[in-house]
């Protein structure tokens, strides 16, 4: 009887007997706990046939589960092996054929001399060769071999070999890029009405918490026989998007302003991350930074210093240069600057308001003035790059801001430093612009751009001895690698792993560790960050809880108090018993009663002379953001955004609407500790948190905050003109 025709009831159930042919075997499918031999009829191994047909992926041989020595994954179809004893056959599958049970059980060397690795963790001989899989796929018509790969994404480990590092991140990059592409393509809207003003069109679009639309993103407008592309140029803080179009396309809108709208996905960011990985692997023996980030084998356990490289790179530095128009460095800032100038790899942790931008500018100033070194400065966002470029330019050194081609069309306050603006000032033919660009980059002492832009071919012929990455915790690890391809001798990472990390869309790759930044993995490698300990943003009442809760009480305040009387406390929890509702989109939440309190607090601030530009409203849910916007007629350019939108920024006054209010469902991502930190640390002079204590108290971190406010007598209820202190126990029982 052919084994493919054998019914399960006819299988012989002898111990260690193949269920297809009853031959003795040591190969067992882990998922079904059944033995199958490695002999074949019709030229196919019975165990392999079974695993492909059943879509099982884990194999036990002689009671040993086959798994990767490094990452511990167990997918046989991604597994290979190396042989320490060369007397063994070079083909594991062939080697197991014909061996008796007694042979294998009595001679453990058949497996103990084998080491197994997945494709991400080392060079190996595949257990199952591609030609076997190709044959099986044609033989079993309803089996897709690719289905075995979806459950085998590699895990981001702490230590890597160069090969496993590159393979791991290239695989995760691919998975994340496909997810973003799917989301972008699903955002298509049909029959959208455009409003035209000059060469800008405005339209209402469905915001999503999944994917943020960024300035310079491209949008395709189309209808029958008509199509054109525009570029997002500004977020209105409303549901209306502003898009710049070519003057030649204006007539198309005037003729008929109803269009289908598609958000164009581009792979540039992902391509450049993969290119960086390939370049680093190619240069693995000479790129010092790449060696350091792979493993802690170069780290001195006692001092945290590198054993591989000299740490006092630039000699003893007695006096740090500080630009004349800059304030004096505090002690923690001075220590961080000195370390950055002398160490190969430096991590600087800057909690909110501690002057990360100021410290970075001083570091760069000293590299240029003391050591004549060219510096490449990058950050994940254009906003962060612009802020740092302006700060460094104020020191008097030569700064060049390089933008992506899509960004060049937008007018900004930093145009006077921008490469494309300077090139235009030379008024040369297009064919000569490349020469001018090269000369400008060569002449610059500091080049500033985003991490993605650092992968442009424009930089290929240049080297940068020093690379500084600002907001490094908001970069995925491969994004941080793009500027490292220029073989720097020194790398400085500036960020705060207690605040928000990078945005990652694919939940599977998040589980694999892709959301972890290079900064955070280096902490796991026992690199010690230099902590900036004095903050200059928040008044003392606003800093007290974040310092204790997130920074072990190390964060000190150096700000002047806000003296104006606003006829309400500067920092309090405003009780609201309104219940959450599902928003009209069906994918978010609204709390209408909280929205009323937001409106009341905003109007109170306006009444007492606070400008809309001084106020920010933070709410984690898009439904609530839209509802507040619709019901706050005075909004104007008042910024209403989620926590991510306020990362790295500040306002004089912040109003928070937490939305969640229920008996059983919990509070969702409001429970994220990093989001809480950012939410509580954006305000300089006043913070009002609106929420339901009963629901929030079920989450330990919000319970801690409520206890803090309760001890201060700052859990309040009632109208703003008649606020009354409420005992927390009466609210949560």
Q: How many separate helices?
A: 25
Strands of the widest sheet, in order across it, are 10-16-13-14-15-12-11
The CATH architecture classification of the largest domain is 3-Layer(aba) Sandwich
Q: Outline the biggest β-sheet.
A: 7 strands, antiparallel
Determine the fraction of residues in helical runs and give it as a percent range.
25-40%
Rg is 30 Å
CATH-defined superfamily of the largest domain: P-loop containing nucleotide triphosphate hydrolases
Helical/strand content category:
alpha/beta
Cα distance, first to last residue? 71 Å
Mean pLDDT: 85
CATH topology of the largest domain: Rossmann fold
Write down the overall geometry.
Answer: globular
Layout of helices and strands:
Elements: E1 27-29, E2 34-35, E3 40-41, E4 44-45, H1 46-54, E5 59-61, E6 64-65, E7 79-83, H2 92-96, H3 101-106, H4 109-112, E8 114-118, E9 125-126, H5 130-139, H6 162-186, E10 189-193, E11 195-197, E12 200-204, E13 218-223, E14 226-235, E15 240-244, H7 250-255, E16 258-263, H8 268-282, H9 288-294, H10 331-342, E17 345-349, H11 356-371, E18 375-379, H12 382-393, E19 399-401, H13 419-425, H14 433-443, E20 446-450, E21 466-469, H15 477-481, E22 490-495, H16 507-511, H17 518-524, E23 530-531, E24 534-535, H18 540-550, E25 556-557, E26 571-575, E27 581-582, E28 589-590, H19 592-607, E29 615-618, H20 622-631, E30 639-641, H21 643-646, E31 651-657, H22 673-680, E32 683-691, H23 693-696, H24 700-712, E33 715-717, E34 724-725, H25 728-732
Parallel strand pairs: 17-22, 17-23, 18-20, 18-21, 19-20, 21-22, 24-25, 26-32, 26-33, 29-30, 29-31, 31-32
Antiparallel strand pairs: 1-2, 1-5, 3-4, 5-6, 7-8, 7-9, 10-16, 11-12, 12-15, 13-14, 13-16, 14-15, 27-28, 33-34
Helix pairs in contact: 6-8, 10-11, 11-12, 13-14, 19-20
């Amino acid at each position: 009887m052919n084994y493919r025709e054998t019914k399960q009831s006819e299988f012989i159930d002898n111990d260690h007997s193949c269920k297809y042919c009853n031959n003795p075997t040591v190969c067992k499918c882990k998922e079904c706990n059944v033995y199958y031999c490695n002999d074949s009829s019709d030229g196919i191994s019975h165990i392999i046939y079974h695993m492909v047909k059943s879509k099982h992926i884990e194999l036990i041989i002689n009671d040993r589960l086959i798994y990767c020595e490094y990452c511990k994954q167990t997918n046989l179809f991604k597994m290979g092996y190396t042989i320490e004893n060369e007397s063994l056959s070079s083909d594991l599958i062939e080697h197991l054929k014909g061996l008796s049970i007694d042979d294998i059980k009595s001679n453990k060397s058949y497996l103990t001399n084998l080491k197994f690795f997945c494709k991400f963790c080392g060079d190996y001989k595949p257990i199952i060769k591609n030609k076997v899989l190709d044959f099986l796929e044609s033989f079993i018509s309803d089996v897709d071999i690719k289905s075995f790969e979806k459950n085998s994404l590699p895990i981001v480990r702490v230590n890597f070999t160069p090969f496993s590092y590159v393979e791991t991140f290239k695989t995760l990059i691919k998975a994340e890029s496909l997810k973003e592409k799917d989301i972008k393509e699903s955002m298509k809207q049909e029959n959208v009405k455009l409003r035209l003003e000059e060469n800008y069109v405005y339209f209402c679009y469905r915001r999503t918490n999944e994917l943020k639309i960024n300035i310079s993103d491209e949008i395709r407008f189309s209808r029958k026989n008509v199509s054109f592309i525009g570029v997002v140029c500004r977020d209105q803080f409303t549901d209306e998007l502003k898009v710049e179009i070519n003057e030649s396309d204006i007539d198309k809108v005037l003729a008929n302003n109803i269009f289908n709208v598609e958000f164009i996905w581009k792979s540039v960011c992902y391509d450049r991350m993969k290119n960086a990985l390939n370049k680093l692997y190619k240069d693995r023996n000479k790129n010092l930074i790449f060696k350091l980030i792979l493993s802690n084998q170069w780290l001195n356990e006692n001092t945290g210093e590198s054993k591989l490289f000299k740490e006092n790179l630039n000699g003893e530095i007695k006096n740090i240069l500080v630009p004349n128009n800059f304030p004096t460095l505090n002690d923690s800032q001075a220590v961080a600057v000195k370390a950055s100038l002398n160490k190969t790899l430096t991590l600087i942790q800057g909690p909110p308001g501690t002057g990360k931008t100021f410290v970075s500018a001083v570091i760069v100033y000293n590299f240029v003035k003391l050591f004549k070194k060219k510096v490449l400065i990058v950050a994940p966002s254009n906003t962060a790059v612009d802020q740092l470029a302006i700060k460094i330019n104020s020191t008097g050194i030569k700064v060049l801001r390089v933008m992506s081609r899509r960004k060049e069309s937008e007018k900004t306050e930093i145009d006077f430093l921008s490469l494309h603006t300077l090139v235009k000032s030379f008024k040369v033919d297009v064919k000569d612009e490349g020469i001018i660009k090269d000369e400008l980059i060569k002449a610059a002492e500091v080049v500033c751009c985003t991490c993605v832009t650092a992968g442009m071919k424009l930089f290929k012929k240049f080297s940068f001895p020093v690379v500084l990455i600002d907001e490094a915790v908001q970069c995925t690890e491969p994004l941080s690698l793009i500027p490292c391809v220029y073989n720097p001798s020194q790398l400085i990472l500036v960020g705060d792993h207690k605040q928000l990390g990078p945005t990652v869309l694919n939940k599977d790759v998040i589980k694999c560790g892709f959301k972890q930044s290079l900064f955070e993995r280096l902490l796991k490698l026992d690199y010690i960050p230099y902590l900036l300990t004095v903050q200059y943003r928040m008044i003392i009442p606003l800093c007290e809880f974040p310092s204790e809760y997130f920074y072990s009480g190390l964060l000190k305040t150096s700000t002047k108090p806000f003296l104006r009387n606003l006829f309400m406390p500067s920092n309090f929890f405003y009780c609201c018993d309104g219940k959450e509702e599902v928003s009209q989109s069906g994918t978010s939440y609204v709390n209408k009663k909280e929205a009323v309190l937001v409106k009341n607090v905003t109007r109170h601030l306006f009444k007492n002379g606070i400008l809309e530009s001084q106020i920010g409203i933070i709410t984690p849910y898009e439904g609530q953001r839209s509802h507040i916007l619709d019901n706050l007629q005075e909004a104007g350019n008042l910024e209403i955004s989620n926590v991510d939108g306020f990362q790295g920024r500040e306002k004089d006054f912040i109003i928070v609407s937490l939305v969640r209010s229920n008996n059983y469902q919990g509070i969702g991502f409001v429970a994220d500790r990093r989001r809480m930190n950012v939410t509580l640390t954006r305000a300089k002079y006043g913070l009002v948190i609106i929420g339901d204590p009963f629901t929030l108290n079920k989450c330990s971190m919000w319970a801690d905050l409520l206890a803090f406010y309760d001890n201060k007598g700052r859990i309040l209820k009632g109208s703003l003109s008649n606020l009354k202190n409420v005992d927390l126990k009466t609210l949560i029982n």
